[in-house]
Amino acid sequence: MRFTPDFIEKVREANNLVEIIGQYTELKGSGHRLMGRCPFPDHSDKSPSFSVSEDNQLYYCYGCKKGGNVFNFLETFNGMNFPEAVEFLARRASIALPEKETFERNKGISRDQKDLLLKINKVAGVFYHQQLKQLPPEHAAKKYLEKRGLNEETVEKFRLGVSFEEWQGLYKHFLSKKVPIDLAESLGLLKPKKAGKKDDSHFDLFRDRLMFPIFSSTGDVIGFGGRTLQADGLPKYLNSSDSPVFNKSRVLYGIHETGKFIRAQDSAIVVEGYMDAIALYSAGIKNVVAILGTAFTPEHAKVLKRYTLNVTMLLDGDEAGLNGAERSLPILLEAGMMPKGFALPDKMDPDDFVKAQGADKLREEVGRAPELFTLLLTKRWMADYHGSPSEKVRIVEEAAGALAKIPSRALMDLYLLEVARQLDVEIGWVRRAIAQKSQPLAGGPKPARPEPVRSGPVANAPAAPQDEAPQEAPEPEIEKIVLKNAPKDEAFILSLLLHFENLMVDLLDAGPEELLPLFSHPGIKRLLHLAVSKYQANPQAFHELAPSLATVVDNPSIIAVALTVTVEDGAQEGFERRLMTDYLNAIRQRHLKQQAKALASQLKDGVSPEKLEAFMELQRNRLAKKRDS
Ligand SMILES: [Zn+2]
């Protein structure tokens, strides 16, 4: 575990959920419950059905049933993983992160240094952005934005800026802000002069360019891209060099803003540059990210996989576009993703396409895009195919590289079938040809390769032995208590207990040992035990109970669900108690029935007076309960 539970709690308590969510949706109401329209992009909420509790620091949506605490919100809304959400909120609240827990394990810089570098980038970003905002409409930068159809909103969302022609604009700004010049140089923003004097030692790298800050998924400026504003300026695009905070081969441009749309739509469109991404975004296609002038890398795949497995590569319809796709395909397949591809007409970039044919047309094309494998097969490997045997051999050999990377045998079989169909040969021949070409396929069954098993089965089986975990360890996170598949009534009781202190007191008065055994779901049981012991240890902190436990479960909406009771029925005196009684009766009945069943099957194996007595007692209990209810 990276952070201690105490640290996580401290961070959570320092960030008011109402403030965070209030940035994304207008919340109305007072005191305990605030209502607003659901901010999640996959739920177009007409009437306000999203509730946030200031007291309990939880949110719950009646419509899409999402719920949880502040970490859960950022994970779902911004697509952060848990450590990122903790880091983001710690910084927001100016809580120092534990030094050993830096995420840049290989980079050898301290957390403080990293913070300083990010701060310098931020200063530069604000500087460029302010310069752009002050420009008159006839300036080349403004004209360019207008021509590309980028409105004020997009400029603000992506914090676009401008660098002027002068040589030391940023350098002088840094001097005035007392920015350590050597660090700014290490970020690639400044270059040293050959014979520099003090206060005249450096010049700006980015000059006369439209500036694109490059954000991490948590919203820090980690680098810059600049597009020349001169008609024939070279290079057309210039990026920050790699630095301790910036690594081109792992950055997906735009994801800090588009991640939530990618997650909501469960699909991503990958384009080649930041202008492409911004153009699609402002045309309303928001589930988009750009790679920065590199091929798609395994690091990109790792980042993107946190949001979706469904990727459509939008390729420039030229040789270079297909080249890039050919390099990307094995990486995407090896990562267990489902890549599709759409090749734009020749000499068109995504922006041209949208301008010429409209965003709807592009959406349609992306929607019916073929598998990237099939696209490459037909458009590239079979480009000048006339059907000769030697061509067939060459094509199979070209496809073999990608095929060898597919972890799923089933998918590979389908691709083999596709090759056989397109080349009009037997699938057996394709298999043999590939086996000859690539060693790992030789001789019947492939060596066992771990299937890309992820959350599903793992989450279902809390008691699963540890050695079944995937070899390639995912980001280490805290172990979650599994609430998946919990019976509705047991889940609701849990949530009620965490929201109403009087119910918790009732439970303790009645003696928890009487009640707890009634629950059948192991996750609910564990959480109830945890809740009771936490409450007994510190009854003053009742309100912290629900939001803090939401951190440790796999399905935090179960904890938040009782917000519905506060909102709808808060006015009715004692309503929560009646609800509780009803639900408890229901699970009591079920519990007795199950016990009776178990005993009955034992009786089949032979009757003893003790067993018989126990059975009679149970039946009496069940009848009594029936009369009560
Ligand atoms: Zn919703």
Any overview of this molecule?
The protein has 629 residues and is α+β, with helices and mostly antiparallel strands. The longest helix has 30 residues, at 575-604. Helices cover 50% and strands 11% of the residues. It contains 29 helices and 15 strands. The model is unreliable at 101-106 and 440-476 (pLDDT under 50). It has 5 domains: 5-101, DNA Primase, Chain A (Alpha-Beta Complex); 111-246, Alpha-Beta Complex (DNA primase DNAg catalytic core, N-terminal domain); 251-369, Dna Topoisomerase Vi A Subunit, Chain: A, domain 2 (3-Layer(aba) Sandwich); 382-441, no CATH class; 488-628. Bound molecules: zinc ion. Zinc ion binds at residues 38, 40, 43, 45, 50, 61, 63-64, 66.
Number of helices: 29
Bound molecules: zinc ion
Percent helix, as a range, is 40-55%
Strand content: 5-15%
Number of strands: 15
Q: How many domains?
A: 5
In whole angstroms, how far apart are the ends?
Answer: 47 Å
- State the shape: globular
Instruction: Indicate the low-confidence ranges by residue numbers.
Output: 101-106, 440-476
Give a quick account of the main beta sheet: strands, pairing sense, barrel closure.
5 strands, antiparallel
- The gyration radius over C-alpha positions equals 30 Å
